[in-house]
Amino acid sequence: MRAVVQRVLSASVEVSVVFNPLQHRSSRARDLSSNLLLQVEGRVVSAIGPGLLVLVGVHEADTDADADFICRKVLNMRLFPNEKTGKAWDQSVTQRNFEVLLVSQFTLYGILKGNKPDFHVAMPPAKAKPFYAALVEKFQRSYSAETVKDGVFGAMMKVSLVNDGPVTMQVDSPSLQGAAQSSNGDDGSVRDGETRVPKEAC
Known about the structure:
alpha/beta, D-tyrosyl-trna(Tyr) Deacylase, Chain: A, two-stranded antiparallel sheet, tRNA-binding, hydrolase, RNA-binding, Daa-tRNA_deacyls_DTD, D-tyrosyl-tRNA(Tyr) deacylase activity
């Protein structure tokens, strides 16, 4: 699993809703105005203030262990300054009581073959949809259902954000071959002054 984490001042997800403005008119009117049959209306489905915008790519081989790792890592990343001490990179999103916006993005596992992207290593939509939904629930259980929001899986979305910094980090879960978590900077230890979301919570 891959997560691109952005520290933001605000972020929102807008979904394009396709509708027929002439659906209640006569067939004659629809025929005459066929080029106007479809219009697109934007609808904001999620929005957050200060916090993290997290783009999530699901690999075809991902398991619950990968989801647990990403959940724990994102919620514990110290990307925010401590306003009391002035120390940078000192607090996590949970310590600041900020919000999290999750957005599914299979293109994070795109592979260029020539100039055309290929997405065969991304988990197929039928399997990825419930897997991603479980990930969202995992974040909400580990933090708060009110502060963890998401977009619409599989929809054409317009994601707006104000990146704070800018700060952008990429996090990959350990491989299925048993790669050491220490290679990702997560050895499970608690550092001085750090409050961590426990493994059991994710």
